[in-house]
Design a protein that fits this description.
The chain is of the alpha/beta class and 298 residues long. It folds into three domains: 83 residues, Multidrug-efflux Transporter Regulator, Chain: A, Domain 2 (Orthogonal Bundle); 84 residues, Methyltransferase, Methionine Synthase (B12-binding Domains), Chain A, domain 1 (Orthogonal Bundle); 129 residues, Rossmann fold (3-Layer(aba) Sandwich), CATH 3.40.50. The strands form two sheets. Strands 4-3-5-6-7 form a five-stranded parallel β-sheet, with helices on both faces. α3 crosses α5 and α8 packs parallel to α9. It starts with 5 loop residues before the first helix and ends in a 5-residue tail after the last helix.
Length: 298
């Protein structure tokens, strides 16, 4: 069974280490275990319990009340909260719990419920993107393994592809042609696949190249496909220091407008020109695609 330090628990639950110690002293709530050399640690069962406590606490339950509840009652209340798909923070927490356990069935059940209740677009905007940001932070702090991020990303990717297939071959009367790609050093596909879903849902045509596309290859495909727009989603921290330099270089290979979206675009100042279109969030991408499909409503 894996052991967690109090800093790991803080990162995973969002509860400050100082608060965890106060809860332990005041309420004997999830007391830490100790190694033979007296080092404090928590096991996987402790983590589950603290994740559930954090979920209840964030949802308005006072810690003094939670401390009086049995574990079965805590689990029951958390299950009731999970059933409320409009509580985005709870869904993010439940997805994190499922990923920690590599529980594909639990992850997909939560995802199914959110999409059934709110649709894929709102689920991506309000639940999955915040969830992936959290997972990324936990991976960077080594609280989670890279395998956890891969596990979650692949399940999300598979689900978006299923939703794309459900769209069929719907076409707008005057569809625009989009070429979708990720540049070298960028391998996170989830945002790009979701962009394809949004574009196809608005009736546009898409050609999907995927990650790590060489610039010369991109130029050749643009010449052949002749898209109205090229689109990329940028999230890799390896690109942040030279982001504008990379975009400037990329523009030399393109003679059509380039749309850039993703967390890097929302967090950094982008030097724009007449052919570079930065979109900072899901709403801007939805509006852009919708307005192209219905210019009279723009």
């Amino acid at each position: 069974m894996r052991k967690f330090s109090i800093s790991d628990i803080e990162n995973l639950t969002g509860i400050k280490a100082h608060t965890i110690r106060i809860w332990e002293l005041r309420y004997n709530l999830v007391p830490a275990k100790r190694t033979a050399t007296n080092i404090r640690y928590y096991n996987e069962d402790d983590l589950k319990q603290l994740l559930n406590i954090a979920t209840l606490n964030e949802s308005g339950y006072k810690i003094s009340k939670i401390a009086k509840l049995g574990q079965d009652k805590v689990n029951s209340l958390v299950a009731q909260l999970q059933a409320n798909r409009t509580n985005d923070s709870v869904q993010v927490q439940m997805l994190s719990n499922a990923v920690l356990q590599y529980d594909e069935a639990a992850f997909n059940k939560i995802l199914d419920g959110c999409i059934s209740e709110s649709g894929l677009t709102n689920t991506m905007d309000q639940v999955l993107f915040p969830f992936m940001k959290k997972i990324g932070m936990l991976w960077q702090t080594k609280t989670m393994n890279p395998s956890h991020e891969h596990f979650a990303s692949n399940l999300i990717r598979e689900r978006i592809i299923v939703e794309i297939e459900k769209l069929g071959n719907r076409k707008d009367e005057n569809p625009k042609r989009f070429l979708l790609f990720l540049p070298e050093e960028e391998s996170h596909e989830t945002g790009l696949i979701f962009a394809r879903y949004l574009l196809k849902s608005c009736g546009h045509e898409t050609l999907y190249l995927g990650p790590n596309v060489d610039y010369d290859d991109l130029k050749a495909v643009v010449a052949h496909y002749q898209p109205d727009y090229v689109l990329s989603v940028l999230t890799s921290l390896r690109l942040d220091k030279d982001l504008n330099k990379m975009l400037e270089k990329l523009m030399h290979y393109l003679e059509v407008p380039l749309i850039v979206a993703g967390s890097l675009i929302s967090e950094f100042d982008i030097v724009t020109n007449e052919r570079l279109i930065p979109l900072k969030n899901v709403c801007e991408l939805v509006d852009f695609a919708s307005q192209l499909a219905n210019p009279a409503q723009a």
